Amino acid sequence: MKIVAQRPESLTDAPFHYCPGCTHGIIHRLIAECLDEMNLREQAIGICPVGCAVLAYDYFNCDMLEAAHGRAPAIATGIKRMLPDRLVFTYQGDGDLASIGMAEIVHASGRGENLTVIFVNNAIYGMTGGQMAPTTLLGQVTTTSPYGRTAEQAGYPLKMAELLAQNQGSAYICRTAVNNPANVMRTKKAIKKAFQTQMQAQGFSMVEILSACPTNWGLSPLEALEWLENNMIPYYPLGEFKVSKEG
Asked: What is the number of other CB atoms lying within 10 angstroms of the CB of residue 42?
């Protein structure tokens, strides 16, 4: 029988621990497919975050490390400077990257560190119980904003792709989503382009990926994808925000 689809070599056979409808699994597979297709698995070193993807080292079949909360870009910087021929990527959520790790991500971008960041934005803290994140939308209900986020109390949601695209050290900054097959394919294309940017030594690259969190949003998996499309994408527009002239 002809094999139509199978697990990428860059993923282990460990079952994912993610909630039903969570799109972390989709993103993991896309990264793994890119590593396989670009023949980069033996060169790849990934940095796990603190958050829902804290166990990502169990799933990727390449060298993986665990960083303290928010410090993945700092760890990645040290590794890439010591091993410049490797593909070094971080995998981070919005709390890890845009809250406790804000200084690390901004300065890694500002320095033009030649590494790649996969930024999963689901507009909420997932692992710790659904608290408000820096990316939580205005009016969005969370455990720490039970009446909805307000700009007066919590400020406005941070647009990380637009923010980092302003830094001269950023070579490739893109925002995608995984709410439908077309956007899933665009996300894979963006990840591959970010990896190519790094392997061509052009500088810092980041792919922000809008992702669903049905459990903490209090929605079914299908409703969560619809909520992402109707609420997140209008505020966080998809597209490329910075493309190196060398790319």
From this structure: 11
- 145 with 154: CB under 8 angstroms? yes
Question: Does 148 score more than 60 pLDDT?
Answer: yes
**Owner of token pair 């981070």:** 92
Inform me whether the pLDDT recorded for 15 exceeds 80.
yes
Contacts of residue 178, defined as CB under 8 A and 6 or more positions apart, other chains included, come to: 23, 26, 27, 30, 184, 187, 209, 210, 211, 212
What amino acid is encoded at 182 in this protein?
Answer: A
CA distance 235 to 162: 12
> Would you tell me how many other CB atoms lie within 10 Å of the CB of residue 169?
15
pLDDT-based confidence at residue 246 (cuts at 50, 70, 90): low
Confidence of residue 59 (pLDDT cuts 50, 70, 90): very high
Check residue 6 and give its pLDDT: 86
Look at residues 120, 121, 102 and name the one whose alpha carbon lies nearest to residue 232. 121
- Domains located in the chain, CATH noted: 24-243 (3.40.50.970)
Quote the CA–CA distance of 137 and 102 in Å, as a whole number. 18
Residue from 24, 41, 23, 27 nearest 187 by CA:
27
Query: Helix or strand or coil: residue 114?
Result: coil
Q: Which residues pair with residue 45 across a beta bridge?
A: 63, 88
CB 141 within 8 A of CB 130: no
Q: Is 83 left (phi over 0), alpha (psi -120 to 50) or beta?
A: beta
> And the tokens for 138?
């205005």
Give the 3-state secondary structure of residue 81: helix
